[in-house]
Design a protein that fits this description.
mainly beta, seven-stranded antiparallel sheet, five-stranded antiparallel sheet
Length: about 375
């Protein structure tokens, strides 16, 4: 897997050898204008609000010598439509999204493999577990000139202010739950702290309750270091940390204390790390174009101890029951019989406004 391009409002990059640590010694495709990428994924995040008017979020349009365009457009009600045109050939799909009445960050993934005449458009709401996908019939390949127009902003192109980032991969990118810990995150085990990236199936770790449980699976993935993937540094000694750790914005942190009991009438709550960023206890971490994350799957969605702080392990729900969703996820290739079924989180997961309120009270 190689990320070939990354675009945001500050920078645009495209390399046929790949970006970041994935950079290869040879290009993944010929450096010719009409060279085709027959398999790949375009992943982007954008803010969409309920009252948004129809608008082109991301795309390009080349009218000459032959009509060529790829456009992703927001549609009324919060959905997104995709239309890909090459001459007299058209591939299109639309996906609906029920908006919650406020601005939300959506992640769109368009993947295609023309060899198998297969395409998929997926919508995920950042911070939620629901994944919605629709098939794209007769997907078209993207030629290098089109990729440069799209990702580098050449010619007639669109990149809406609501866009967060867009990235291009040469593979079918997984959808659904993903890892959120830096590989060097120290995780408590009966043999002391070990880096999360070195743990494997059969190893054991401590939970925040002091129990010893086995690691059922370890998953890893390299993603664009932007948007909901942009790393956050959690700083010691806040949150009980003994050392700084790097985690993804959507990693859930377990928080307790008198403020939690007063505000939410429970001992502990879960909150995404992105809501804890305040410039000192947690802050965004400068990084390159891509970042690698890992995570552990534990039997009962147990809370692990990372650098001294309680963090949520990977929540996969009942994904093992859905063959299609399992095959589309970061768990592709894992025997479903080797996976647990996770009940709903044992602690209350704070809404965005609750987490921000709690963070402000703690900072006061």
């Amino acid at each position: 897997m190689t990320w070939l391009a990354l675009t945001d409002h500050k920078d645009r990059r495209l390399s046929l050898q790949g970006l970041g640590a994935e950079k290869r010694s040879t290009p993944v495709m010929a450096d010719l204008p009409d060279a085709e990428l027959t398999r790949g994924s375009i992943v982007f995040e954008t803010q969409v609000s309920e009252d948004s008017k129809p608008q082109v979020l991301f795309g390009f349009n080349t009218p000459h010598p032959d009509k060529r365009s790829l456009v992703f457009q927001a549609i009324p009600g919060g959905g997104v439509a995709m239309v890909h045109v090459q001459g007299d050939q058209i591939a299109h799909a639309a996906i609906a999204h029920k908006n919650a009445g406020r601005a939300e960050i959506l992640r769109l993934s368009y993947s295609w493999d023309t060899k198998y005449n297969w395409g998929r458009l997926t919508l995920e709401q950042v911070g939620e577990t629901v994944v919605t996908s629709v098939a794209v019939e007769n997907p078209l390949p993207l030629v290098l000139d089109d990729l440069r127009d799209l990702m580098l902003g050449r010619g007639s192109h669109d990149y809406a202010p609501d866009m967060v980032f867009a990235a291009l991969s040469d593979q079918i990118e997984p959808i659904g739950p993903g890892p959120t810990l830096a590989p060097d995150t120290p995780v408590a085990t009966p043999w002391g702290y070990r880096n999360a990236g070195t743990l494997k199936r059969g190893d054991t770790v401590y939970t925040s309750e002091g129990e010893v449980v086995p690691v059922l699976q370890t998953v890893s993935r390299t993603v664009p270091a932007r948007g909901s993937y942009a790393p956050i540094r959690m700083r010691a000694p806040y949150f009980g940390l003994q050392d700084d750790i790097i985690i993804a914005p959507e990693q859930h942190v377990v928080i307790d204390g008198p403020e939690v009991e007063y505000l939410f009438s429970c001992e502990k709550v879960l909150t995404p790390a992105r809501h804890l960023v305040n410039g000192f206890a947690a802050r965004t971490e400068p990084c390159g174009h891509t970042v690698n994350y890992t995570q552990l799957i534990l039997p009962n969605h147990d809370t692990l101890m990372a650098g001294g702080a309680p963090l949520e392990s990977l929540y996969i729900g009942r994904i093992r029951r859905d063959t299609h969703q399992l095959a589309s996820s970061v768990l592709f290739g894992v025997d479903r019989m080797d996976l647990p079924e996770h009940k709903a989180p044992s602690h209350k997961v704070l809404k965005w406004y609750e987490a921000i309120h709690l963070a402000k009270r703690r900072a006061a």
